[in-house]
Design a protein that fits this description.
424 residues; mainly beta; 5-stranded antiparallel β-sheet; 4-stranded antiparallel β-sheet; 4 helices; 46% strand; globular
């Protein structure tokens, strides 16, 4: 499979000139693969629609801008005397059937449910005031048809039931429930009851040193959810048997990790994100590795891939600057063969599980696709030109079509996949 950059969306500023409020903070495809929602630090949500283009007799997939709206505003918490930032921490789509789409957006303290629907928009063209008082040529205002447009409508707000900042949202396939998580707690909500929720994980009392790093509903089973922690575990909960985290159905953990144990090991093994794969396995992302797990063998990963061993030359720097806590998303392709994850220095990595290859792609606003193969166990010390501020933390395969989207700083990039036979 060859991956080619086909679309750049975003202003071409230097990293130093980009305003903090314009940075992309979250991104999510809807389950149908037809829509992509992108949130930023300014509380805005930008919507894109799947678009197919024919170029040189080849079908290329791209994203077409359709709408944007202000989801969250900056607020003031009077009890704690602190500002609640408008930054969009998480976005999730809820499938409820029908032509309208439903979108969940979250800042630190509240989740909002938006209905996105199409309607005919009309614009009133006003007349000068003298036309209304001159009875000899009295005219009524005109209505101009602007055609159909996607329009957002706020339906509900779910607020004030998280003490910590909300970090993620995951929707259940039944279209009725969703979960929210902060560092210490996971709550399950019903979209029809915004004032109450049910807590399935609460680390505040047992062990405050353990934090939740990711949590997701199973995309195929409405009774299963999983969450990962800072102690390198993925816990699977079967809600049919128990609704409390004290009795997880399966605990996935590498009981015998390779390599020398150092002071940095607990931070490097903390799971920042994971994904459910269509072949029944899991893929997890640690700071410098990705691992593929089979829940039937939870004590040892099936596959382990080093992402960028050269980062070890600067591990002390990232630890001292707290960048060792940065989280990078991981996503798997439809056939579960390819693993997509981000890195620093305006780059992301594509791992081919069948060929056992790791390709690093560079991100810039040129039309050229920049990539190179990272050999296994390749190590080369990083110099001062390596940019730790240019992070590619949001990545996602389209769930239905053969392309992917990655976000870096204020820009969105689309890459199309093609087999060697089709690219000739």
């Amino acid at each position: 499979m060859e991956w080619t950059k086909t679309q750049n969306l975003g202003e071409t500023y230097s990293p130093e000139a980009i305003k903090p409020q314009d940075l992309i903070s979250s991104m999510r495809f809807d389950p149908s693969g037809q829509f992509l929602a992108v949130g930023d630090n300014n509380g805005r949500v930008i919507l894109f629609e799947h678009n197919e283009q024919i170029q040189k007799k080849k079908t290329r997939f791209a994203m077409k801008y359709i709408e944007e709206f202000q989801s969250h505003e900056k607020e003031f918490d009077q009890l704690k005397s602190t500002d609640i930032e408008e930054k969009i921490n998480a976005i999730e789509w809820i499938e409820k059937g029908g032509q309208a789409k439903f979108l969940l957006t979250s800042n630190d303290k509240s989740v909002k449910l938006w209905k996105i629907f199409r309607k005919n928009v009309r614009l009133t063209v006003s007349k000068p005031l003298e036309d209304f008082i001159n009875f000899e040529r009295f005219e009524l205002p005109e209505l101009n048809e602007l055609g159909e447009k996607w329009c957002p409508s706020l339906k509900r707000t779910f607020a004030n039931l998280h003490k910590q900042s909300i970090t993620l949202i995951s929707a259940n396939i039944d279209g009725e429930k969703f979960l929210t998580a902060d560092d210490l707690k996971i709550n399950i909500w019903n979209i029809e009851q915004p004032s109450t929720c049910f807590s399935v994980v609460d680390f505040e009392d047992p062990d405050p040193s353990v934090v939740v790093t990711a949590a997701k509903f199973d995309p195929q089973k409405d009774y299963m959810l999983a969450y990962s922690t800072s102690v390198a575990q993925i816990n699977l909960l079967d809600l049919r048997k128990s609704s409390r985290a004290a009795t997880p159905a399966i605990v996935i953990e590498d009981k015998d990790p390779p390599g020398k144990v150092t002071v940095f090991t607990p931070y490097l093994m903390s799971i920042g994100d994971f994904s459910f794969n269509n072949d029944g396995t899991f893929t997890s992302r640690e700071y410098l590795t990705t691992k593929v797990w089979d829940p039937r063998m939870p004590d040892k990963p099936l596959e382990t891939y080093n992402i960028f061993e050269s980062m070890k030359s600067r591990i002390k720097d990232v630890y001292e600057n707290d960048m060792i806590f940065d989280k990078f998303e991981v996503s798997t392709s439809i056939d579960s063969r390819h693993i997509l994850t981000g890195m620093y220095n305006s780059a992301f990595h594509m791992i081919d599980r069948e060929r056992k290859t790791n390709i690093q792609f560079g991100l810039d606003h040129s039309k050229k696709t920049t990539s190179h193969l990272i050999p296994p166990d390749h190590f080369e010390p990083l110099d001062d030109s390596y940019n730790f501020d240019s992070k590619t933390q949001m990545v996602s395969f389209n769930p239905k079509h053969n392309y992917l989207a990655v976000a870096c700083l204020n820009s969105l990039f689309v890459f199309n996949g093609s087999t060697q036979e089709s690219s000739k």
